[in-house]
């Protein structure tokens, strides 16, 4: 009896002495299957390919299991982040209105290569929604991001530009350069191509560097609405010129002119002999105090400084150069005693919500509450571009950021706090109806009047 093992060929003599097949037509097939292993039938080829595919799959599974076993910290880091679904502020932390996928121009990231991921690993899950500024290397930015936008993103991520109005102005000037260099591709229209294919990558990059502030969100929405209103039959040069002029007008009216009007209106609220108390350094408060001094009013200023930012020290030097008496306190210690001697508390805001609550630098709420307890007037200075008519805020965790410079796995500092409207006497804006000093609850009415002057 002849035995064939592992497809080995039979001896030549055995092949010669084998009986001839009953059907001569099957002889070549039998020879191919039995005597020549290099030639296989279609069924055998299919079975062989299936076996090789199964072997490859098994090898891939083994490699994946080895990677998981070698890097257990990867899963722990993902759990510590509390998932990927962070919101964006346009105002709001993380991606606004849903999570956006990461930009297509990015190189893949690996565990331990990004400092931000390692640091956030220690944040409790209940705070995982609070975002933090992150410096993104320009080499990892989307290929369509304009160089001017790259510069602004880096400045925001490193806090070289940090207050909301400075970020708004830098953003609009950068987008102005984007529009200047834009050319509508053949077969497209400016109103339908510019926003989704050109502006959105710029905005996404900026918001990944640092969550969008309220002023940026409002201005970008207005810009998109302006672009969408462009007639598709308008010449491209005229449409671009109109958009550039609109950006210049927004900066002039909503920033420069607003600062002038707010400073003049708030300066009228300061009387001779007043003691003005303020917190940290805010652009509008500084302009107001200098404007009041220019009008010949004599008053003194008490500055309670943010112990981490130290902007109040810069303000104190600026006021002293203008011959304004200044009492400087490096922190919130003894706040009740300082507020007790104040006749007016002037505070700046980063945003005001529809329910009248104030979003401002951390520590502002403490000063406002102490001021109201001491029966002092608490006046907020804020541009209307920072108003949010759609959202309300009752705590400091919904719309906030983690300070990337003062943060460890054991503790972290929030950049902003929330002041309820009951601690605010009035709000001064560039909208002068009603004397420019309106209650915080009247925020929506102010916006409606600004958009439609016919409303009484």
Number of strands: 12
Contiguous runs where pLDDT drops below 50 for at least 5 residues: 1-37, 72-117
CATH fold-level assignment of the largest domain: Rossmann fold
In which order are the strands of the major sheet placed? Answer: 3-2-1-4-7-11-12
- The global form is globular
Q: For the terminal residues, how far apart are their CA atoms?
A: 112 Å
Which CATH first-tier class of the largest domain would you pick? Alpha Beta
What secondary-structure arrangement, pairings included, does this model have?
Elements: H1 12-17, H2 27-34, H3 42-70, H4 73-81, H5 115-120, H6 147-157, H7 164-180, H8 190-209, H9 214-228, H10 236-268, E1 275-279, H11 283-294, E2 300-304, H12 311-321, E3 326-329, H13 335-340, E4 344-348, E5 351-352, E6 358-361, H14 364-373, E7 377-381, E8 402-407, E9 412-414, E10 416-419, E11 426-428, E12 437-438, H15 443-451
Parallel strand pairs: 1-2, 1-4, 2-3, 4-7, 7-11
Antiparallel strand pairs: 5-6, 6-10, 8-9, 11-12
Helix pairs in contact: 6-7, 6-8, 7-9, 7-10, 9-10, 10-11
């Amino acid at each position: 009896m002849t035995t064939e093992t592992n497809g080995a060929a039979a001896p030549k003599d055995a092949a010669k002495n084998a009986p001839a097949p009953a059907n001569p037509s099957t002889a070549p097939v039998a020879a191919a299957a039995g005597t020549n292993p290099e030639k296989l039938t279609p069924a055998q080829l299919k079975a062989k390919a299936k076996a090789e595919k199964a072997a490859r799959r098994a090898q891939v599974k083994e490699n994946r299991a080895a990677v998981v076993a070698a890097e257990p910290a990867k899963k722990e880091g993902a759990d510590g982040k509390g998932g990927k679904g962070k919101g964006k502020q346009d105002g709001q932390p993380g991606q606004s209105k849903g999570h956006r996928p990461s930009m297509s121009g990015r190189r893949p990231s690996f565990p331990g290569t990004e400092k931000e991921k390692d640091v956030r690993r220690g944040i409790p899950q209940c705070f995982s929604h609070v975002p933090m500024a992150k410096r993104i290397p320009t080499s990892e930015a989307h290929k369509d991001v304009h160089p001017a936008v790259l510069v602004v993103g880096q400045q925001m991520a490193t806090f070289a530009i940090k207050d909301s109005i400075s970020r708004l102005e830098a953003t609009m000037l950068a987008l102005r350069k984007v529009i200047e260099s834009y050319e509508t591709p053949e077969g497209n229209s400016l109103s339908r191509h510019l926003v989704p294919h050109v502006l959105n990558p710029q905005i996404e990059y900026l918001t990944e560097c640092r969550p969008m502030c309220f002023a940026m969100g409002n201005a970008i929405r207005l810009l998109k609405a302006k672009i969408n209103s462009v007639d598709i039959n308008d010449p491209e040069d005229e449409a671009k010129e109109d958009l550039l002029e609109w950006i210049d007008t927004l900066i002039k009216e909503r920033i420069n002119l607003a600062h002038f009007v707010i400073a003049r209106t708030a300066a009228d609220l300061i009387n001779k002999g007043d003691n003005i108390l303020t917190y940290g350094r805010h652009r509008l408060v500084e302009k107001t105090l200098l404007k009041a001094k220019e009008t010949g009013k004599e008053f003194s200023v008490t500055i309670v400084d943010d112990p981490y930012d130290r902007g109040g020290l810069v303000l104190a030097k600026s006021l002293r150069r203008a011959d304004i008496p200044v009492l400087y306190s490096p922190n919130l210690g003894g706040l009740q005693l300082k507020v007790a001697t104040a006749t007016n508390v002037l505070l700046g805001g980063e945003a005001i919500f529809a329910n009248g609550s104030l979003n401002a630098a951390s520590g502002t709420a403490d000063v406002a509450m102490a001021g109201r307890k001491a029966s002092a007037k608490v006046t907020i200075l804020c541009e209307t571009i920072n108003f949010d008519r759609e959202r309300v805020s009752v705590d400091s965790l919904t719309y906030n950021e983690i300070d990337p410079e003062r943060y460890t796995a054991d503790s972290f500092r929030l950049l902003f706090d929330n002041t309820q409207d009951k601690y605010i006497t009035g709000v001064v804006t560039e909208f002068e109806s009603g004397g420019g000093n309106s209650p915080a609850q009247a925020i929506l009415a102010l916006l409606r009047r600004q958009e439609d002057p016919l409303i009484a």
